[in-house]
């Protein structure tokens, strides 16, 4: 490996968006290097790197926005972003760092969208704008913090540029679906995107998506958990009206996607194959997390019921990674974000048609998480646990009612399908928490345990929120 590649091999595992945590990096290789800004010996340079990280025989692509400056010229507020010092072109030593934190360079990123040349196919990295869209430069980008698998820069109150860290060849679903929903009041309007040609691939790969920024909006996860906290502190708290409205909004977005993009019906054989894939994930998770294994027989029963469903199951393009952290609430109503699906899954798989009930299941699991997350690290308190689960049941039921009222498939009439999707999502969560946040592992495990026990409470749901099997 080169000197820069060795530095990146040390730096990568510490990044929030790196998906291979816990697995040693065997090799890092710079596949492509695109120079966007070359300011000369004394100024900052900006390069887009596409790197290959090899781990246990597997290789993953990542995008790195790499800044470089002469030694001792890195501003103090950027010191924590330094990756190291290495020789660059011409043999000169330079400090290399994460350029997403550099306001001077992020301002130049947005300016590239304003150039007239972006209408043509020029250069190895291309800045595209939608026909009829004018992008105005408005200063540096402010880096959004928090639990993100990508990096987002907010420019004033006008734009947000989302750069995709884990790269897969082809058009990112976030671009595809936002384009299909352009004009909908339930998404941020797409303005443009950045693309590049990866080696060996004819279809351009999406590097970033530019959208209008939705100001004065609050993250759905923040709203929900604040509501749960208020409830657990003994005060009045009701979130069900918001949950119902979110359900209606979700159904309307699904309807818009079905009108704009292809649809189909899942065949019985395809349903059986899908159930087989769920079984494989369960086996892998049970082997890694022994606490899950005792509940595996009941989960398997749910998957077997799903495999035998003979009702037509409509499929279409869906969000694919739907939860409370993917929605925001401005004054006008709910807005959906991040349509890229699960970033660790290849783009071709994320582009496959699926049941919109999978999105419903994801949001129902998120209500369960919002309730259980505040109990993590606390001693077991039966009253608090009961109150949190009751909150989850109310809001899950409200979301399902809203989804049906908004024209979506009534979840109460598709309990077998929904139950399988919920279990599959919870099994995925068990693996994720075991590998990334072990102290959160109790949240999906307790949900699976309660759902597998068959204890019912409320309108067709278990205490943990998973739909009960009819009869």
TrEMBL record:
Coiled-coil region list: none
Pathway: Glycan biosynthesis; glycogen biosynthesis
Residue ranges of every copy of the Maltokinase N-terminal cap domain listed in the record: 11-102
Keyword Iron-sulfur: no
InterPro entries: Aminoglycoside_PTrfase (IPR002575), Kinase-like_dom_sf (IPR011009), Mak_N_cap (IPR040999)
Enzyme Commission designation: 2.7.1.175
Residue span, Aminoglycoside phosphotransferase domain: 241-368
Catalytic activity reported: D-maltose + ATP = alpha-maltose 1-phosphate + ADP + H(+)
Keyword terms: ATP-binding, Carbohydrate metabolism, Glycogen biosynthesis, Glycogen metabolism, Kinase, Nucleotide-binding, Transferase
Pfam families with a match to the protein in the record: APH, Mak_N_cap
Superkingdom of the source species: Bacteria
Assembly behavior: Monomer.
Family (UniProt): Belongs to the aminoglycoside phosphotransferase family.
Descriptive protein name: Maltokinase
The organism of origin for this protein: Nocardiopsis exhalans
